[in-house]
Amino acid sequence: LSFLSDEKFNAFSIHSKNNLAQSEYFKKQYFQFQDIGSQSIGHFIHALLKNKKNLKILDMCAGLGGKTLHLSELFGINAKIFATEFDDKRYHFLKENTKHFKNIITIPFEEIDKQQYDMVFIDAPCSGSGTFRRQADLKYRINESYILEKVAIQQELLEKSKSLISKNGLIIYATCSILPIENELQIEQFISKNQSYNVLEQHLLFPGIYNSDGFFMCAIKKE
């Protein structure tokens, strides 16, 4: 994939078995841990928008801020990244983890619709099926009802994003799942209900091919 081969990843491959999470450098946020598949989503987004300036980006499901920080590094002064998280506990840590970054603005989830954005990034809650290689027990802890619950949340987030993007804006939808019901079929259903939206590009990273977690990513444009 071009955004994987052409971009230079600012990352190290860690082979040490030492617990680097206890390192003082990690605690001071000099570095962070992120699977190469997870990083690829940031590069996918940057490849689509790298020639744009004065961007307003909404990270709609920012969690603790891992991908938010990566986008901050990639875009620098060319973008303001508005980061939010529905879960109050996660939002607290999101604010702490991003407070030193000038191009990141944290906003409560209930305030995201006060403006429109050039891009809305949905790192959607999902089954996590793309992480089976390092969380083998997960396959025994998820079932059909759990997956369908995530599918319903994903649909809500996609519908919510429609009111948040400006004309010609982008929705970036991503999951750490390899299940079609959370990925390709989810996008097909969204497009079938919303004729003014088109898929620009989508990719599925399989762990066996890219030596990473499994990830799906899709760019949807509003015409």
In total, the number of strands is 7
Radius of gyration: 17 Å
**Main beta-sheet annotation:** 7 strands, mixed
Summed over residues and divided by their number, the pLDDT gives a mean of 90
Amount of beta strand: 15-25%
- Count of discrete alpha- or pi-helical segments spanning 4 or more residues: 8
Uncertain segments are: none
Terminal Cα span: 26 Å
What would you call the structural class?
A: alpha/beta
The arrangement of helices and strands along the chain is HHHEHEHEEHEHEHE
The coarse silhouette is globular
What percentage of residues falls in helices of 4 or more residues?
25-40%
Strand order of the largest sheet: 3-2-1-4-5-7-6
Please describe what this structure looks like:
- This protein is α/β, with parallel strands linked by helices and 223 residues long.
- It is built from 8 helices and 7 strands.
- The protein has helices spanning 2-5, 24-27, 36-49, 66-75, 88-98, 144-161, 184-193, 207-210; strands at 55-59, 79-83, 104-106, 117-123, 165-175, 197-205, 215-222.
- Strands 3-2-1-4-5-7-6 form a 7-stranded mixed β-sheet.
- Strand 2, helix 5 and strand 3 (104-106) form a beta-alpha-beta unit.
- Helix 3 packs parallel to helix 4.
- It starts with a helix and ends with a strand.
- The model has no long low-confidence stretch (mean pLDDT 90).
